[in-house]
Amino acid sequence: MKKTIVRNILEWLVVIVIIVSLAIIVRYLAVEPRQVRMSSMYPTLEDGDYVLVNRMAYITNGPERGDVIVFEPPYSGKDDYIKRVIGLPGETINNIGSEIWIDGQRLDDDFKLLPQTDELNDNLKLKPDKLNEGEAIGPDEYYVVGDNRAHSMDSRSFGAIKKNHIKGRAFIIFYPLNRFQFIP
Questions:
Q1: What confidence score (pLDDT) does residue 127 get?
Q2: What percentage of residues in the chain have a pLDDT greater than 90?
Q3: How many other C-beta atoms are found inside a 10 Å radius of the C-beta of residue 65?
Q4: Is residue 29 a part of any domain in this protein?
Q5: Residue 102: which H helix or E strand, with range?
Q6: How many CB atoms lie within 10 A of CB 114?
Q7: In this structure, is residue 4 part of a structural domain?
Q8: Between the CA of residue 140 and those of 6, 22, 69, 134, what are the distances in Å?
Q9: Residues 24, 30: Cα–Cα separation, whole Å
Q10: Residue range(s) defining the domain that contains residue 168
Q11: Domains in the chain, number
């Protein structure tokens, strides 16, 4: 009888250790929850939303235009940023007025991008001189902007980001529950 109880306890301990180990592996290698702490992705993401980030999304391929990604900002020790990819390696980006042009064609506003206003936030420090002449994106770089372009610190101010700075693709809003949805 005592052997059966001890054996059952050991079996449960092994099961618990395996479950906890798998949860840790999934959490740190595959899927990571993140809280949005900015309004630069409004209306797609709101301040306070919780999203799931697929950390393995770009192991073999890079992001596609329209993907919402989490990345380490190139010139900042601050928290990671979350933005939408609009420019791909080898393309040239121009910011003409409130429009973004890619290789001479205006970017279709399929991503719910809010227009940039003439009175941009002074903190953005955009590089209008470089953007008006065109900014070439390197072979392993991506150009990202916030959906709320008037209030977004993004590639317009710090340039394209390198693929190795990308931490994953945000793919679902899971909290608050009334906003539960896949991210377009």
A1: 54
A2: 39
A3: 16
A4: no
A5: strand 99-102
A6: 19
A7: no
A8: 56, 32, 15, 18
A9: 10
A10: 34-182
A11: 1
